[in-house]
Amino acid sequence: MNIIKQYVTQNDCYKAGQKITPRGCMVHSTATPGVMAQAFALRWNQPGVEKAVHFFVDDADIIEILPCEAGNAWRAWHCGRGSRGSGNDTLVSLEMCESRDLKDKAYFDRVYENAAELAAHLARTFGFGAEDIICHSEGYTAGIASNHADVMHWFPLHGVSMDDFRRDVKNRLEDKTDEDGDSDEGSGAGGGAGEQTGPLYRVQAGAFRSRENADRLCSQLKDAGYSDAYVKTAGGYYKVQLGAFRSLENADRLSQQLEKKGYETYIVNGR
Ligand SMILES: [Zn+2]
User: Fold this and answer.
1) Which residues lie at CB < 5 A from ion ligand 1?
2) E strand segments, 124-195
3) Which of 57, 89, 91, 127 is deepest in the core (most CB within 10 A)?
4) pTM over the 0.90 mark
C-alpha cells in the first residue's frame, strides 16, 4: 500500500492543527460521483472549505491530506456532531471517492480493496479493532455524527454491508503471519539447494483480494527497481512479496528501505 502525503495546508481544519488519540475509524464516501482523490485533495486545499478528512481513497490512490500517523493524528472535521457528541474527537476518517456510475462494479471492487487495506493499516497503527470501524450513517445512528447516508447508499448496490467491510479488515489484521509456508518453498531468490533448512524471511508489501491490485503494486515495485517483487496467492489473498532471505537482518534492511519510500511492509516468516 502506498500512501501519498499531500497535506491541505491552506484548509482551515489543517490550520486549526488540533490532535486526537484515535480509537476507531469512520468510513465515508464523497456523494460527489466522478471526482477522484487527487481532485478532492486540490479542491479542499483552500480556506473556507470547513471540512477535512484524513484520507481520500479512489481506485488508484490513497492520499493523506491531514497528518495521521502513530503519535501524530490530527483532528479532522469529517462527521459533524450528533446528540451524543462528535466522532471527530476520537475517529480517524477516510473518504471513498465515488464513480460517476455508482453501479460500476470494477471501480467499486478496487476502491473497496484500497479502503479495507487502509483501514487495516490504521487499525494496526493506532491499535483499534475492526469492530471500531463504522460508516457515517452508523455514526449518525450512534449519535456522534450528522445525518448522512454514506456509505449505505452505495455499498448495498454491490451486495456489501459494513459488517462485510469489518470482516474484510479483520481478515487482514489476522493475516500478519504467513501460515502457508510450504506452497512456494525454494522458488525464492535465496532458496539455495535445500541443504539449509532454517526459516526463510520474506518482505510483504501488501495483501489484496483482487489480483489486479496486487499486480499494480508489484509492477510499481519493479519500476522502482525491486525486480524480485512477485505476487503469490495464499489464503484467498494475492500477496506482494520480495525476496527470500535466510537472514532476518537482510529482510529487515529491505523492509526499512521500503518503509522509507512510503510502503507499508512487514516481514513474513515462510519457514
Ligand atoms: Zn460522510
Assistant:
1) 28, 136, 148, 150
2) 133-135
3) 57
4) no
